[in-house]
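Convert to structure. Protein one:
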Amino acid sequence: MEEIRDRSQIPVEDTWATEDMYASDAAWEQELSTLEEDKAVLAGFAGKLGDSGKTLCDYLTAMEKADEKISLLANYCMRKSDEDTTNAFYQAMTGKFMSVAVALGAACSFETPEIMAITDETLN
């Protein structure tokens, strides 16, 4: 049976290239902090999605950009966490990300009901 090696014993070429996503944990933290602004922008659309096609398009475009950022942030912290599941720092980083992502999701909970309320005629 092969002994399980420590992360430090794994050749770099056999590890995830998380530096391709963010150069450092500090860069990841900086990007995570921008989700607060994204949340405010997206929440500002509440009650307005049916106002016009432009408003709906602007919201969906902003949401798509936030989703791309969320995906990259999640991928980074989860890969770092997966590297060594006993590393409390990266477990906490994943928890922090999840809290921010859930808060953003809650702020955008108006999306589905508002879009569903738009008549087919208006939506077309």
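Protein two, convert as well:
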Amino acid sequence: MQLSADKGPHVALNAHLLSGRDSYRSAGVHHYILHLLRHLGDIKNGMRFTALLGADAPAPTSSLDLLRSHRDTSKPSTRILWEQLTQPRVLRDIEADVAHGPVFVGPLVAPCPVVTTIHDLSFMRFPHLFPPAKRLYLTLMTQLSARRAQRLIAVSQHTASESVALLGIPREKITVVYHGVDAVFRPLPAAKVAAFRQRRGLPERMLLFVGTLEPRKNVIRLIEAFARIYEGESKLAVAGGKGWLYDDLFAKVEELDLGDAVIFPGYVPNEELPLWYNAAAAFAYPSLYEGFGMPVTEAQACGTPVVTSTTSSLPEAAGEAALLVDPRDVEAMAAALKRVLSDEALRNRLKERGLTHARTFSWSRTARETAQVYRQAVA
């Protein structure tokens, strides 16, 4: 298909993973889809965008076309059937020029070119950390979707390299488009942060982790590292919805007798998350493997010093504005945490570097670069 220079393609985006529920499903990929749609709606270059939504999914924006399914696709099995059986017909009916599968999977049979976003391949690198059904589905459908797609979007250079190594995709088929940082993540007035701490009973020396509770996030080692530096005047807040295989986290807290020092506030809605980042003395994100690592740049945008991993894409997300440690080395992690809590000059230095680094990521840029991939797919 060849479009004239003054006419952009009609792009249909599968937004059935948008969630309005307070759970881990409203975290990472939900925010990617939400912000991408909102900022694509601001693009005025002749392109037309249609968001394909489930029956109960929240409307992401009023500035693009919305097409709802009559089915509730919040149940994975129903969504999978819609993606592969119903979506091709919908794409044909609305005369889409491009279909975008923003989370690993696109329609395997489609009447138009397909673009698919690869976030990470942790289910292939760390298969033992996933429930078998989830692992098998993601592995099979990601491999098939990547081969079927005209173009792939990778959310980091590391993910692009992994797609070549594990999926066998030619590098020239892949475009790296980084995530953005929402404008809500910024330094907040000291009085507002102090009031939040008081309301929640949080100390000033609080370490914070934000992410889905699942083994890849490496929270058990974070708890073990915190136990080595705990002196009775700080807390570790592990914020995030329950994902899978998380029972060992709570058992580890009991085993180390940290019941009063480690708190689990659960899933934190986006509107409250900036307060948690601002209230923390430091942010710890020791994940074993990430496609990008949005919490790292969100914390930096709030002026919070960051300790994160030397692995996967996290050095890309953190830049020169964080302390990097081997996520499997508990002693090194403990030393880094103690250093960032006790060294005020270091905290100030990381804060300033983090604020500057975070400004290089924006969702408007993500949308512009993604729109260019759509044009490439139909060229």
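Confidence is low (pLDDT under 50) at residues 22-26. The radius of gyration is 21 Å.
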